[in-house]
Amino acid sequence: MKDVAAAAGVGLKTVSRVVNGEAGVSEATAGRVRAVIDQLGFRRNDGARLLRQGARTGSVGLLLEDVADPFYSQLSRAVEEVVRAHDSLLLTGSSAEDSARERALALGFCARRVDGLIVVPTSADHAYLAPEAAAGTALVSVDRPMPGLEVDTVLADNRAGAVAGTAHLLRQGHRRIGYLGDAPDIFTAAERLAGYRQAMADAGCPVEEPWIAMGRPDPLGLRFALARMLSDPHPVTALMCGNNRTTVAVLRELAGRQERPALVGFDDFELADLLAVPVTVVAQDPALMGRTAAELLFRRLRGEPAAPQHILVRTRLIPRGSGEIPP
Amino acid sequence: MKDVAAAAGVGLKTVSRVVNGEAGVSEATAGRVRAVIDQLGFRRNDGARLLRQGARTGSVGLLLEDVADPFYSQLSRAVEEVVRAHDSLLLTGSSAEDSARERALALGFCARRVDGLIVVPTSADHAYLAPEAAAGTALVSVDRPMPGLEVDTVLADNRAGAVAGTAHLLRQGHRRIGYLGDAPDIFTAAERLAGYRQAMADAGCPVEEPWIAMGRPDPLGLRFALARMLSDPHPVTALMCGNNRTTVAVLRELAGRQERPALVGFDDFELADLLAVPVTVVAQDPALMGRTAAELLFRRLRGEPAAPQHILVRTRLIPRGSGEIPP
DNA sequence: GCCAACGACGACAACGTTGTCCTCGTCGTC
DNA sequence: GACGACGAGGACAACGTTGTCGTCGTTGGC
Question: Which domain holds residue A14?
Fold first, then answer.
């Protein structure tokens, strides 16, 4: 900027005025300054600008498990749209379900003075974010609650969804229903498992522990779990899958086996309706969740709601075939 | 920081030293300062730090068409991993194929003084980035070249891939092959169409213009295009699809029709192998492309390669069934 | 012809850090 | 006991902006 001012033969403040389109500069001077700016390729340094103004930085951080997971990538896109509508920029980070990594990313974002943070929190304690919240950083938790901190939260009705999915299988006459879920320390995994148990209990259907397999959805683990559930002298006749990753991995394993149990998956996924046996799912609306979370964040930045909001997004059972196979 | 210094009864520089773990502070003083920092919830302002140091900001911008597209979300994730390995943060933006929007995002990122920019460029001229490049911002173009600027570029061998896919259908005996691609101003769409034409020409197979439909993959447009190609008195017997969005949309349309043409898709996609008729594809490796682009960017930041690099990532034909249907 | 009002512009401080350089006190050595 | 060396810590400027306020010249009104 100094160079521009010198080259145009004006003061620093005049360049600033031109750059920001402020009044008080004659058209002649402004034109001269603009010419020099173009020629020198000058760009305002927003870092310095924000430092001086002490205002919002116009940036928001998004922390989730994995951008490559379709559920999160849709959520991510919805967040981005809202952020863009508010003329803000988006910083993204994948925690890979590692709380240390999440923490490092979150603090890194905050050191950059993001206006707010939208987080899909790991199960670890998040009290370390209390100072940021106190400093005015808007925090929104999405998909899961944030342990150790009271913040705006957007959740799906995981339990009701799992109940609906399991009940659907029970209605087809299944009594021996397996449950394959994500690692049990993940909030949604625990909630959905609880929903499954509740539906089974409501139906007076005892659950045998070998029917339940919880853990990160890796092919080998799922192969063993399925072998155990399906090769048993009393095999399960239906499966409930805890999330889209698990459902897809299970479908892939089942393709290599003879058994064709009924199946309901939590989370909708692309092409679920075009498979040989279309997959019945309990659908979430990741875009709605992302949009809601982002809007909550900007409302919070406007200082609107006093107390932290808790929003529940409904799930929806979509029968497609795989859940309608009788035992 | 002033508050911390005052509360701890030390000078500003001492707080700075403690925060940055510099030597020259007694353990007693350091402990006192740390206690005050914890109590006040002080966090260093990286904006000011970077301003003072004039160094790199440790942040990278990623601009692509749509984070929710599985191709880009995988690419995105790979970029993120490399960025994280270099202790940098990632700003993400979706251009939605709108060059004005891309430009606004790019300039916004640059105003934040990102160290570099990884871009999936729209077809518009990108000369506006020349000043940024001159100012030392590393630029990498991925998936498509950047019109109007010579930068490091990572491309798939689109043409060879399309040739391979089309030739595969020709080998099955197809002569009347339709091509459904993205908007023709998109580099990859044009290249792949050229590959299709080339393979057809090489086989001495004349192409009739009604067999070709180029445009954003919207269901209605594709429905008409397919109706035209398949209901013709001389219908096409096979289809080549230009990208994953188109392939999926076409599969969905075909599910509502009687005809079962052979089909090869450009881009692999999840569950392609589990469909009723598994889909033969020309697979790209989006993660490799993202990783390569990001590594190129950091090499450039280290000042390594003199001239802009151009890297070609190979595609791979994966026969699965849908392409092996004879006419 | 004088003065007020106004428009155009610049000087300067401040935002929150850190690099440089300086001061001050203590300790060891001869 | 004097002196040098060294460790701890502080004062100050600077990074690139912008808000505040002041200056200067011109114009219009009476």
Answer: 2-44
